[in-house]
Amino acid sequence: MNEAHPHPAQQLDAWDRHDPDSWRDGVRTGLPTLLGIAAWGMVVGVAMVKSGLTVWQASAMTLVAFAGSAQLASLPLIAAAAPVWVIFATALVVNLRFVIFSALLGPHFAHLPLRQRVFYGYISGDVSIALFLQRYQDPARAPGKLSFLKGLLLPNWCSWQTGSLIGIFLGSAIPAEWQLGFAGTLAILCVMIPLVINSAALCGVLVAATVGVLTYGFPYKLGLLAAVVAGMASAMAFEAATSRRGSQHG
């Protein structure tokens, strides 16, 4: 008697079905970061209102953009009435790291329909992607992998939006002398320091910081754009030179 075997495509699709245990595992893994994400979102929400955006403009920005660093980078440009292309170029450069994240996640989920990949790309965050890649370094398909990712991404998105909207709607009630802009700088440092995990990243940070100081007086905050480009270019050049030296000595 021949046993019925599932079609390979059906078996593969089963790997992407919702797995409650993996989803809860993803939530537990990302749980320690949610309070910090919400606090960071609140700082950005207050900054948007304080920069002159209306409550509804700021709300639309946080829901559509969902990129705190790009939002903060664009705010002084918006306040200074910078050209639209400068604002978009700055936000684009600041968010170029997500191109790298997408390249890392691509082999894991390239089989998913485009609409799903677009959705998960929209709700992706730096910390969530880093936590996922720590757990799943092998891009081969595995049961529960997608559920684990969703357990990381969805609470992260909800935490950010909750904090950001609280900051937006309460921003007008927070005195300017509280200096929450400095709190935002501290929050950025808390996110950045753990990401400086190798010599190439450290090189990029040092170059970006130096260029940022030297170009501080540039109009329309173009020094920020120059610092980001210089930092990324130097980190990539450092990584390439290190790889060449390693191959020569290998």
SSE class: mainly alpha
Amount of beta strand: under 5%
Estimate the helix proportion, in percent.
over 70%
The dominant shape is: globular
Main sheet attributes: strand count, strand direction, barrel closure: none
Distance between the termini: 56 Å
Q: Any overview of this molecule?
A:
- The protein contains 12 helices and no strands.
- By secondary structure, it is mainly α.
- Helix 2 (20-50) packs antiparallel against helix 10.
- The longest helix is centred in the first third of the chain and has 31 residues, at 20-50.
Give a quick set of tags describing it.
globular; single chain; 75% helix; disordered N terminus; 250 residues; 12 helices; mainly alpha
Short description:
This protein is mostly helical and 250 residues long. The chain has helices at 8-14, 20-50, 55-65, 68-79, 84-94, 97-109, 114-122, 126-135, 145-170, 180-192, 199-214, 222-249.
What topology does this entry show?
Elements: H1 8-14, H2 20-50, H3 55-65, H4 68-79, H5 84-94, H6 97-109, H7 114-122, H8 126-135, H9 145-170, H10 180-192, H11 199-214, H12 222-249
Helix pairs in contact: 2-4, 2-8, 2-9, 2-10, 3-9, 4-5, 5-12, 8-9, 11-12
